[in-house]
Amino acid sequence: MFYLIRHGSTDYSQRNTKIYQGFGVNLAPLSAKGAEEIRQTAKDSRLAGTSLILSSPYTRALQTAAILSKELQAEIVVETDLHEWMANKNYIYETDKIAENSYHEFAAMGGNYADGKERDWEDLAAMRKRMLRVLKKYRSYDKVAVACHGMIIQSVCHGYHPANGEIVELDPDIFR
C-alpha cells in the first residue's frame, strides 16, 4: 500500500534572495508550522509499520521524509522523479512570471492539453507516468509512505489536490 503525503507548509520568506532565486526556490525549507503538520501526520495510525519512505529531492519533501523517518523508524530513499510539476518540461528554467502563467494555463485546462496542442508545461499524464514508474519499483513493500508534492499526487488521484501534510491512500489497482 502506498500512502502519498504532501509535504508540510513551506517557508518561502527567502524567495528571490541569495541562492533561493530561480530553481533555488526548491531549496526552501519547511516552516515551523509545516514541521508540526508532519509531526501530526506521523501519528496517523495508517502509517504505523511503514516499511519505507520515498522522497522527492526537494528540501520541503526531504524534511517531511526526515520527520516521518524519525517518528516511524523507516528508511528514506530519494527518488528524483518524485519532483514537483515542471513549468517547462524541457528542463529550462522559467521566470516566476512565465511559470505562474503556465500554472494558470495548466489549472484552466484541468492539467491537460485540452485543445490537443502541446505546451511547454508538464501535463498530468506525464506526471502520472513518471510517478507510477517510480512506485512500481516498490510494489513488493507492504507499506510505503511517499513524501512528495500536491500536483504529483493530483496526477495519480483523479485530480484531487491534498492539503499540506495530508495523507492520500493510493488505490492498489492503479498498476493494472
Describe the structure.
It is a single chain. By secondary structure, the chain is of the alpha/beta class. It has 2 domains: 2-85 and 125-175, Rossmann fold (3-Layer(aba) Sandwich); 87-121, no CATH class. It is 33% helix and 12% strand. The protein has a 5-stranded mixed beta sheet. α4 crosses α5 (150-156). The longest helix is centred in the middle third of the chain and has 14 residues, at 59-72.
Briefly summarize what is shown.
With 176 residues, the protein is of the alpha/beta class. Helices cover 33% and strands 12% of the residues.
CATH topology of the largest domain: Rossmann fold
**Tell me, what's the shape?**
globular
Mean pLDDT: 91
What is the radius of gyration? 16 Å
- CATH-defined superfamily of the largest domain: Phosphoglycerate mutase-like
> From N to C, what is the helix and strand string?
EHEHEHHEHE
The separation of the N and C termini measures 14 Å
Which residues sit in consecutive blocks of at least 5 with pLDDT less than 50? none
**Biggest beta-sheet profile:** 5 strands, mixed
Number of helices: 5
CATH-derived architecture of the largest domain: 3-Layer(aba) Sandwich
- Count of structural domains: 2
Q: What is the share of helical residues?
A: 25-40%
* Assembly state: single chain
> Structural class from helices and strands?
alpha/beta
Tell me the total number of β-strands: 5
- Strand residues, percent: 5-15%
Order of neighbouring strands in the sheet with most strands: 3-2-4-1-5
Q: Under the CATH scheme, which class of the largest domain?
A: Alpha Beta
